[in-house]
Amino acid sequence: MSDLFHAHSPARLLPEGDYGLEGAAGVRAQAVTGLAAATLVARRGQTAALRAACAAAGLPLADAPRASSGAGLEAVGTGPGRWLIFAEGLSGRELRARLEGLSAGLAAVTDQSDANLVLDISGARAREALMKGVTVDLDPAAFQTSDAATTIVSHVGVTFWQRDAAPTFRFVVGNSFAPAFLRWLGASAAEFGFALSGTGRG
């Protein structure tokens, strides 16, 4: 890894570009911008009521490591009675206000819009690259569209889920740990050709 990224500061995001095997891009990663994000945490004993209220408003919430969508929002279960919620085209303040309205006092809502790097990872060799460090069985028979996990990758805490059958995986990584995660991903994907976009030119 040191040879591959020796010119790039380990404290900064890996710059966009092509890494590893030339003439191939078996793994692609795109930083996702323009998303508002928030945590939604059910108050004690209110998980069922919260899920019912959100479902009535068009947003199904799986009380499990699953992703779901509705009412223009995407929800990912991160633990019992806990979800990460994402929205395009809203500010963090707008998303928080909307969730507070949906939850009707049944949950705590915290804006997370500036807290994380959100990364879409895809490509014909994406599973193989991710399997090098993701402590979840990513075999297509075991991990499929809408499946999600909150786990550790190379000592970095992440939440991720599979968005489609291509497959495309969306990873959410805390900003402080995003440079380390990207260096791990780049090193893991380099043998397949790694194309990174959306992180700037360094």
Give an account of the 3D structure.
The chain is of the alpha+beta class. The protein folds into 2 domains: 99 residues, Gyrase A, domain 2 (2-Layer Sandwich); 77 residues, Alpha-Beta Plaits (2-Layer Sandwich). Helix content is 19%, strand content 36%. The chain has 4 helices and 12 strands; from the N terminus they run E-E-E-H-E-E-E-H-E-E-H-E-E-E-H-E. The strands form 2 sheets. The chain has a 7-stranded mixed sheet. A 5-stranded antiparallel sheet has the order 4-5-6-3-7, with helices on one face. A hairpin with a 2-residue loop joins strand 9 and strand 10. It is elongated. The two termini are 18 Å apart.
Question: Considering DSSP H and I runs of 4 or more, what fraction of the residues is helical?
Answer: 10-25%
Run of helices and strands: EEEHEEEHEEHEEEHE
**Any idea what the CATH architecture of the largest domain is?**
2-Layer Sandwich
Strand portion? 35-45%
- The CATH topology of the largest domain, please? Gyrase A, domain 2
Structural class category: alpha+beta
Tally of structural domains:
2
How far apart the termini lie comes to 18 Å
What is the mean pLDDT? 94
Number of helices, counting only DSSP H or I runs of 4 residues or more: 4
The total beta strand count reads 12
CATH superfamily name of the largest domain?
Probable tRNA modification gtpase trme, domain 1
User: If you compute it from the alpha carbons, what radius of gyration comes out, rounded to the nearest whole angstrom?
Assistant: 18 Å
Low-confidence stretches: none
Spatial strand arrangement across the major sheet: 1-12-2-8-11-10-9
CATH secondary-structure class of the largest domain: Alpha Beta
